Amino acid sequence: MKIMARRNRKAFTLIELLVVVSIIALLISISVPAFRKVRVQAKKVASKQLISNLEAGLESFRSEKALGSRLPPSSSDAGDGFISDPFGPLNSSRVPSTGASLLAYAMAGTDKRGTAGFRQVSPEASWADSLDNIYLDLNATRYKPFVGDTAMKQLKTIAETRSAGFQLLPSNLIENQLVFTDLFNSPVLYYRARKAARRMITNGAAVGVYDHNDNVTLTSAVNGPRRHLLLNPGYDNGVGVATQYPKTPGALPSTPAPDAYSFGSFIIDRDASSCTELPPPNSDVENCLKAIPNRAQDYLLISAGSDGIWGTTDDVTNWN
Q1: DSSP H or E run through 202
Q2: Which of 129, 111, 89 lies closest to 177 in space, CA to CA?
């Protein structure tokens, strides 16, 4: 009878276990950023699709004769930027408006049941003072939402964007206003162009193609030290001749340096404006013979992107 020799079963040594753990940790450290990058990229693609859906919706709105055959207004079209509160009782106090919220009202209405447009209810009241009358009127004609279900799912109130993580300061005046949000939960800004204007940016009484004030209620209310799409008097004077614009946010002559481009340096069309880089030591600044904005004939849409800051290179817009 043969007796099999008992083999000694060797266990893992501490060094071997440490090597295995180190390899696993290394693989995790490599894969987690990669997965995060893929996730961020997927959200950027979805945000770009949202911008495309809003563009299609705006064109449908503009083609509707009953709605005036024109683009929806932006905040500065309301004169002082205030509107009658469509969520309050009839003839209640007026509240600040934003291009972002007026875009939502145009595409889906204040209650997501379809837009009633922007019209005067009496000769004495402008469209901005008529929104409460329009939306509290149960018999008002509604037009179905001009965007599909995917875009409708991105409609949130200002309060809901804050709950989802976007760092807006609380404001009781705009908490109920609807906005479209990108996949990073930041509101999509809307600016309507004034095609006949001869300067790029509105400067006081001098009307420009675009008005920085259209969304300043949002861009100036972000919590923390970061600043978004500031109006920089040194550059954004709207003159439109021999204007210098910084290539990078850090080149702005401000202390402390902001985290975003100024409004003008962000929206300028550098090709159409014949911008050229200045020689060192000013290579971070471009000299532009003209000041022509992107999309000078219709409107701008701006999503803050993954960093949550409007006016940086990762923004998703309707011109990039």
Answers
A1: none
A2: 111
**Mean pLDDT (whole number) for 255-269:** 73
Tokens representing 105 are 């009202």
Provide the 8-state DSSP code for 251: G
Query: Does residue 59 have a pLDDT over 50?
Result: yes
Alpha carbon distances (Å) from 103 to 15, 30, 34, 114: 62, 41, 35, 12
The answer to whether 201 touches 210, Cβ cutoff 8 Å, is: yes
* Chain position carrying tokens 């503009």: 62
Structure confidence at residue 91 (pLDDT): 64
Instruction: Provide the residue ranges of all domains of the chain, joining segments of one domain with +.
Output: 39-317
Cα–Cα dist 299/189, whole Å: 10
Q: Between these two residues, 186 and 241, which has the higher pLDDT value?
A: 186
DSSP 8-76: P-PPPPHHHHHHHHHHHHHHHHHHHHHHHHHHHHHHHHHHHHHHHHHHHHHHHHHH-GGGTSSPPP-GG
Task: Reply yes or no on whether the pLDDT at 256 is more than 60.
Answer: no
Give yes or no for residue 68 having a pLDDT over 50.
Answer: yes
How far is 93 from 84, CA to CA, in rounded Å?
Answer: 7
Question: Can the peptide bond before residue 96 be classed as cis, meaning omega within 30 degrees of 0?
Answer: no
Could you tell me where the DSSP H helices lie in the chain? Answer: 14-63, 99-108, 131-136, 149-152, 158-163, 216-219, 263-267
pLDDT tens sequence across 169-214: 667 678 888 999 999 988 999 999 999 988 888 888 888 899 999 9
pLDDT band at 308 (very low <50, low <70, confident <90, very high): confident
Q: Are 165 and 185 in contact (CB under 8 A)?
A: yes
How far apart, in whole angstroms, are the C-alpha atoms of residue 170 and residue 94?
18
How many of the other CB atoms lie within 10 Å of CB of 74?
27
